[in-house]
Design goal:
By secondary structure, this protein is mostly helical. The chain has one domain. It is built from 11 helices and no strands. It is elongated and about 65 Å long. The N and C termini lie far apart (110 Å).
């Protein structure tokens, strides 16, 4: 009986297999590319820039005597992670209940999809959605753990650390933010799987929508702009290199518009009685 059920699941149109394969390859390829960019040029990503700014924030908080401000800021992050963790668990449990009780999407799938989904495959997809939200809950729970550790570390003197107190505290805070980032990413990745309940063609469309949102969520600099910036940096290091025409033109326009290049007129602020004297 189980073999017959497996054969039924595998007996799908070629269009369904192609759409599923394209969606999965797009998701995997995007995240591999993002991982490479984050390792090579982290400033092109929001996460890389945020890691640097959080390290600067930790350094500022450790140098200042106002420890209450640091704890209040960490409390805001803890409250946000707690909200997302609770939401992830509720959604995961709700989807699990729907999967076990059974849901009939046969009519909807046949009406909207070119390759309708069978009832058994719908249950498997619902279990996959539940697994995604349980994974989000795990990431948000770990982010809460590291946020709490950061609250202890940020006010400790450097004598209590075997290494640099700044490096240890910033690394702990960035780990918390990394888990928070992955948990939020899980909410976006659940979108194509929800569309997958209707059919593989909807899964491919949902994947394209999710990747568009993830690109705005991950990258902060246009790749062409980043190349122009690197070319300008290379030109400053090598004066014999060919100049970037666009960069030089923008610099000239900025120099014309900059108020610092214009002569400033001195203003007489003395009163009439002073001038009469």
């Amino acid at each position: 009986m189980q073999i017959d059920a497996m054969l039924t699941l595998l007996d799908r149109p070629l269009l369904a297999w192609i759409a599923d394969a394209c969606g999965l390859l797009l998701l995997i390829g995007y995240h591999l590319s993002l991982w490479r960019v984050f390792r090579v040029d982290p400033e092109r990503t929001h996460r890389g820039r945020s890691d640097r700014l959080r390290r600067a924030w930790v350094e500022t908080m450790r140098d200042s005597a106002n420890g209450i401000l640091a704890i209040q800021t960490l409390r805001n992050w803890v409250m946000s992670a707690t909200l997302f963790a609770s939401t992830s668990m509720l959604i995961g449990l709700g989807v699990m209940g729907v999967a076990f009780n059974g849901v009939d999407l046969n009519d909807l799938s046949h009406a909207l999809s070119l390759a309708p989904t069978s009832a058994n495959l719908v249950r498997l997809k619902l279990l996959l959605i539940a697994a995604i939200f349980f994974g989000c809950f795990l990431h948000f729970a770990l982010s809460l753990r590291y946020y709490n550790h950061t609250g202890f570390l940020i006010n400790l003197p450097s004598t209590y650390f075997n290494e640099s107190g700044l490096a240890s505290t910033a690394d702990t805070l960035n780990r918390a933010s990394g888990h928070y980032n992955r948990g939020t990413r899980g909410f976006l990745l659940a979108t194509p799987v929800l569309f997958w309940l209707i059919g593989p063609d909807w899964f491919l469309g949902g994947t394209l929508i999710s990747l568009t949102l993830l690109y705005r969520f991950d990258y902060r600099v246009d790749p062409r702009q980043s190349r122009r910036n690197r070319a300008a940096t290379a030109h400053t290091k090598d004066p014999h290199a060919s100049p970037d025409i666009d960069t030089e033109k923008r610099n000239q326009e900025n120099s014309i518009r900059s108020p610092e290049t214009q002569p400033r007129t001195k203003i007489d602020v003395s009163s009439p009685s002073d001038r009469s004297m």
